[in-house]
Q: What sequence folds into this?
């Protein structure tokens, strides 16, 4: 049966094994003179141990299917927004990226009216740029046509 | 004593300079807003505002960030009392009796007691911080790599022990955070570890993208799509004065909350959260009328609110005296110090007296500012909750992206934030605490360096960790905590039916998980 603890414990243990595997490319050193791989392997070993312990004692925890995932559509849309921001901020510039991202979230996801969406998106995109870039001197990227 | 007063005079000359005073005020206002808004905790608030401090000097930046931290503690009480919405986690306990007082028409009194309690606790704990930090820093000058290794290890174990969840889960998260801290160039050999072709990872993964992702983005992912904001109750100014009996009942809890909060604040962990829970439990235990708790007991507001404010000052003790963060918020503040060219550690107090004493003095000033802000202007802050969440969370998301990008001007950090957001979302769904990851990430380079330096010092002999008394004591305490808290895991595991998750019948005939 898939419980939250069993699943998470197993994933953590597998992640630890991946780290140990990946550490092979680095010098391990010796027990007395540790190399760059020594601490990561030691920590991964502890993670493996705790992951196995969580999985082994996690039979009584909540089933994965019982965990509520009602908000997953919103969560997926927000994550898409984060990814878009990471992709666009240097290509399109801060203001254009924020403008498009806010339009997507407020109009596309939250189904608000166009007037509210455009006012809010323009206000926040240009307002935050002015506050941080112009007043607080935080360097923010500009996109095409210097926007 | 005289030296301390002279130093404090120096501190006030810094803190009362117009620029520092202005940014202390700005920090307090932002902190109050952060505290009022559900979903934006002090950690996310400090992380988001970190880039805005780049143009300031170190003292001003630290004063503003600290203002956000303790401002959030004040602000968190407002929504807890008026709407039963904890603006941030440390205010959960205030919801219980604070909201009950509101329902009985005593909202103003609850707000006043929370604000005065927070003010007294904040001010008194700064006095203790002022006297405790310098001698502790002097003591820490005796620390070598073995002592630092033992101290950092003890810090992680105490954090896991104090966490509200299960110890193996907290330790797993700490190990995961430490592993994240292994990414980047090994300072002792120059090997580039786990970079996967990304040169941006040379200095390792930053604290800010991880903290904003795990706390800020995951909160947005969990709460977006929730129903419209609840009704807002605004108390009138003349209703703010508590009755004499309410004052009388509050002084004891404020005193105990201050002491408890400060002591818990020094210990690694989410001190401001834990301290409010402990204070509530203590007040209920000591009360002659424990049955009133949960039904509007003023002690249930005064104690936890004082404790969480006092804990913020307590958390600054190891940060300022030892350069060791006691939780994720001091960890981000340490990162801020490093960004501004300050090397955290016991020498900060001696080498940067204006920074240390200016910071201390600004906390006195900040507490006065917060008292003024939080009573007459409470209605103004509450109005923020009228902003619909479908507009609020996109704005928070934009500030998260902006804040994370601006630290290094790196898109990789924004990707890390997004990945950490998903991870935080899943971990919280699966009942894991995420604070140990942030602390592990910050401590990892120090821990590894002190471990390997210790072995260099001893020609590879591990006896160095047990042959030095300070290190030995700290390791013994850590081991004791580890054994104590792992005991229930093993006793539970002995029940093979439970460990296999087999369903069974109770004596009452109800089906339940054994």
A:
């Amino acid at each position: 049966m898939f419980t939250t603890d069993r699943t998470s414990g197993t994933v953590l243990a597998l992640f630890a094994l991946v780290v140990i595997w990946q550490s092979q490319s680095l010098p391990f050193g010796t027990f007395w003179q540790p190399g760059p791989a020594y601490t990561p392997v030691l920590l991964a070993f502890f993670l493996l141990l705790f992951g196995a312990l969580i999985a082994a004692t996690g039979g009584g925890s909540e089933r994965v299917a019982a965990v509520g995932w009602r908000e997953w559509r919103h969560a997926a849309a927000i994550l898409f927004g984060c990814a878009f921001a990471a992709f666009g901020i240097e290509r399109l510039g801060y203001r254009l990226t924020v403008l498009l991202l806010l339009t997507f979230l407020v109009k596309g996801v939250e189904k608000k009216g166009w007037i509210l969406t455009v006012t809010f998106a323009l206000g926040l995109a240009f307002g935050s740029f002015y506050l941080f870039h112009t007043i607080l001197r935080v360097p923010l990227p500009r996109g095409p046509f210097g926007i | 004593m005289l030296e301390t007063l002279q130093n404090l005079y120096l501190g006030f000359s810094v803190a009362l300079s117009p620029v520092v005073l202005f940014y202390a005020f700005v920090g307090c206002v932002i902190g109050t807003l952060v505290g009022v808004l559900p979903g934006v905790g002090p950690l996310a608030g400090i992380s988001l505002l970190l880039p805005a401090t780049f143009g300031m000097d170190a003292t001003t930046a630290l004063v503003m960030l600290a203002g956000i931290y303790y401002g959030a503690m004040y602000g968190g009480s407002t929504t807890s009392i008026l709407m039963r919405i904890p603006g941030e986690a440390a205010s959960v306990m205030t919801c219980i009796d604070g909201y009950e007082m509101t329902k009985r028409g005593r909202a103003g009194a609850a707000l006043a007691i929370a604000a005065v309690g927070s003010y007294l606790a904040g001010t008194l704990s700064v006095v203790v911080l002022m006297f405790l930090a310098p001698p502790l820093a002097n003591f820490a000058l005796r620390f070598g790599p073995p002592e630092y290794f033992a101290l950092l290890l003890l810090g992680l174990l105490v954090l896991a022990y104090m966490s509200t969840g299960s110890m193996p889960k907290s330790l797993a998260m700490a190990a995961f955070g430490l592993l994240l801290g292994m990414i980047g160039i090994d300072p002792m050999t120059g090997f580039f570890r786990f970079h996967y072709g990304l040169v941006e990872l040379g200095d390792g993964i930053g604290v800010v993208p991880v903290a904003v992702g795990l706390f800020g983005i995951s909160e947005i992912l969990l709460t977006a799509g929730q129903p419209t904001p609840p009704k807002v109750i605004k108390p009138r100014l003349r209703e703010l004065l508590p009755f004499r009996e309410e004052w009388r009942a509050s002084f004891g809890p404020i005193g105990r909350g201050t002491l408890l909060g400060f002591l818990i604040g020094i210990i690694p962990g989410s001190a401001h959260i834990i301290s409010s829970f402990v204070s509530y439990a203590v007040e209920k235990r000591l009360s002659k009328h424990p049955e009133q708790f949960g039904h509007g007991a003023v002690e249930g507001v005064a104690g936890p609110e004082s404790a969480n404010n006092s804990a913020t000052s307590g958390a600054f003790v190891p940060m300022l005296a030892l350069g060791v963060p006691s939780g994720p918020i001091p960890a981000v503040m340490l990162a801020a110090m490093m960004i501004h060219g300050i090397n955290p550690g016991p020498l900060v107090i001696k080498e940067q007296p204006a920074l240390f004493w200016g910071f201390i003095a600004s906390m006195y000033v900040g507490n006065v500012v917060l008292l003024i802000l939080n009573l007459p202007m409470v209605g103004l802050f509450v109005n923020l909750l009228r902003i619909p969440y479908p507009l609020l969370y996109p704005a928070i998301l934009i500030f998260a992206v902006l804040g994370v990008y601006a630290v290094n001007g790196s898109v990789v950090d924004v990707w890390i934030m997004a990945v950490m957001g998903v991870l935080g979302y899943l971990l919280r769904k699966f009942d894991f605490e995420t604070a140990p990851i942030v602390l592990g990430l910050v401590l990892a380079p120090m821990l590894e360096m002190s471990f390997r330096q210790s072995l260099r010092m001893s020609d590879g002999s591990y006896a160095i960790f047990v042959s030095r008394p300070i290190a030995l004591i700290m390791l013994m305490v850590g081991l004791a905590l580890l054994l104590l808290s792992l005991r229930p895991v093993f006793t539970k595991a002995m029940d093979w039916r439970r460990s296999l998750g087999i369903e069974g019948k109770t004596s009452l005939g109800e089906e339940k998980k054994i």
About this structure: Chain B touches chain A through 72 residues (CB under 8 Å).
